[in-house]
Specification:
Elements (H helix, E strand, L loop, with lengths): L13 E3 L2 E3 L6 E5 L6 E6 L3 H18 L4 H17 L1 H12 L3 H22 L5 E3 L6 E9 L3 E4 L7 H13 L3 E4 L6 H12 L7 E3 L4 H10 L5 E5 L2 H13 L3 E5 L4 E5 L5 H12 L10 E7 H16 L19 H16 L3 E4 L16 E4 L6 H4 L6 E7 L2 H9 L3 E2 L1 E5 L3 H10 L4 E4 L11 E2 L1 E2 L2 E2 L1 E2 L1 H6 L2 E9 L2
Parallel strand pairs: 7-8, 7-10, 8-9, 10-11, 12-13, 12-18, 13-16, 15-16, 18-19
Antiparallel strand pairs: 1-2, 3-4, 5-6, 6-24, 11-22, 14-15, 17-21, 20-23
Helix pairs in contact: 1-7, 2-4, 2-6, 3-4, 3-6, 4-5, 9-10
Length: about 475
């Protein structure tokens, strides 16, 4: 592999108790640019001592941060948001270098990251308890909300800025310290954001950043008596394992474990408008997002028109480096995703599906981990891609005649994170809104997951919620107080 140095890419390290710990003699792993396969940097992997030092730092940081008045915590978080917005171009460049998404998408993610810090800082001011009428005239009954304690958080590589920020910002808003282990594939963006957090005045030890062997870091953090709360975004398999460990230790846990979002398209829609929306949402970040629209259930009356136009638009998208202003979809994050797309397409075709766009890597000889935007028509319900989360640029199209049947098929999944529908009928919208089994539902739009709303999955898509007032409560404990006059 060729090594490639970019002036915008940060020097990687571990953040422990306000100090950056560089590689030294530690083991490390390469960070690749997915558009070229070149090595950007080497990320150091935490030792057992590093993990122990981070835990001790988080314990000390918690004692400091929980005592900081809420308004002062919000001021620090507002400053973090301001610094992130001031550095959008630099941060977006880092994000595109290591993750591959288009620069315009990277800028959007960075702005959403700033929003998460700002909004959660303000929401922390509204973490109200309550007064309960007392049973005697000389006493008071109160319910207080108190920070849960040091948090261990684990974030993935697909949206490495905003998904990490959600966990960090919510912990900070609640008055908790946090140790975050982002993905080793995309370490640079959190190094840069953490540096801005320290610049904003966050006390030492309140935010710690570790990279390492995932199972080693998670096992040590979960086992530590100092860690009170866990938050994880990733696969169902790893989520189950962490939930088991957290359950054994009786620790609070929030899990966001992916999805397989259905899209119901009724026969009364403006097909061109819906196709435009589907193209933008489906191939964002090369389809590598948990709320990505994937299973398209299209009414028989508009099925052929929808499928033809979706295939035409998908086939015309330009694929390449996220830095190219003419590119409309960037690379996959790694070679594993390319191989997975090949498997899903071959399996679908073997079961009777038709490839009407893409279905292969581009043939232009570009290096990197590329796959063409793909539309598969006449998808059978038992195809692997209809059951397993594809996590890539595959639009899977099936027809239906009866709305009840469409809802049944849309809900026939182990996942229940996001779901979408398009219709002009208020009656159909009402039936769909109440019938879809998902924690997040959008009608006539793919807009989803602003920081002011809770982001929660049902079924195998997770436990608890991120963001919103509900997400903040996940990082707090209840304390009932009865206070009597002496």
């Amino acid at each position: 592999m060729r090594h490639f140095v970019h002036d915008s890419y940060p020097t990687l390290g571990l953040l422990i108790d306000g100090q950056w710990v560089r590689a030294g003699s530690r083991h490390h792993r390469p960070v690749l640019n997915p558009a070229s396969g070149e090595v950007l940097a080497q990320v150091p992997l935490a030792t057992e001592d590093d993990i122990g030092d981070a835990i001790a730092a988080a314990e000390r940081g918690f004692q400091v941060w929980k005592s900081v008045p809420t308004f002062e915590r919000a001021t620090v978080m507002r400053t973090i948001a301001h610094l992130i917005r001031e550095n959008v171009e630099r941060l977006a460049t880092i994000l595109t270098l290591e993750q591959g998404k288009r620069l315009t998408e990277a800028r959007e993610e960075i702005r959403n990251t700033a929003d998460a810090f700002e909004w959660m800082g303000e929401e922390g001011k509204r973490a109200y308890g309550r007064v309960v009428p007392a049973r005697t005239a000389d006493s008071d009954q109160l319910v207080r909300l108190v920070p849960a304690g040091p948090v261990a958080a684990f974030s993935p590589w697909n949206f490495p800025a905003v998904l990490a920020a959600r966990k960090v910002a919510t912990a900070l808003a609640a008055g908790c310290s946090v140790i975050i282990k982002p993905a080793e594939e995309t370490p640079g963006i959190m190094v840069a954001i953490a540096s801005l957090c320290m610049e904003a005045g966050l006390p030492n030890g309140v935010l710690n950043v570790l990279y390492g062997v995932p199972s080693e870091v998670s096992t040590r953090l979960i086992a530590s008596p100092a860690i009170s709360k866990l938050s994880f975004t990733g696969s169902v398999a790893v989520g189950r394992q962490l939930a088991t460990q957290a359950g054994a230790a009786l620790k609070k846990i929030t899990l966001e474990l992916g999805g397989h979002a259905p899209v119901i398209v009724m026969d009364d829609v403006d097909v061109d408008r819906v196709v435009d929306a589907c193209i933008a949402a489906k191939f964002r970040n090369a389809g590598q997002l948990c709320i990505c629209p994937t299973r398209f259930y299209v009414h028989d009356a508009v099925y052929d028109q929808f499928t033809d136009r979706l295939a035409l638009r998908a086939g015309a998208l330009r694929v390449g480096s996220g830095f190219d202003p003419g590119v409309q979809m960037g690379p996959m994050a790694n070679q594993r995703r390319v191989e997975a797309m090949s498997h899903f397409c071959e399996d679908a075709v073997s079961r009777g599906a038709r490839v009407v766009a893409g279905g292969r890597p581009p043939d232009n000889g570009d290096p990197g981990f590329f796959w063409l935007p793909t539309v598969l028509a006449d998808m059978p319900d038992d195809a692997a891609a209809m059951v397993q989360e594809p996590f890539g640029p595959l639009a899977l199209v099936s027809r239906f005649e009866d709305l009840d049947d469409a809802l049944r098929r849309a809900n026939a999944s182990e996942f229940g994170l996001a779901a979408y529908a398009f219709t002009r009928s208020l009656r159909s919208a009402h039936v769909i809104e109440h019938g879809l089994e998902a924690g997040n539902v959008s009608l006539n739009t793919f807009a989803l997951s602003p920081p002011e709303l809770p982001f929660a999955g049902i079924k195998n898509s997770g436990l608890g919620s991120e963001m919103g007032r509900e997400g903040l409560m996940e990082y707090m404990n209840l304390k009932s107080v009865i206070r009597s006059v002496a």
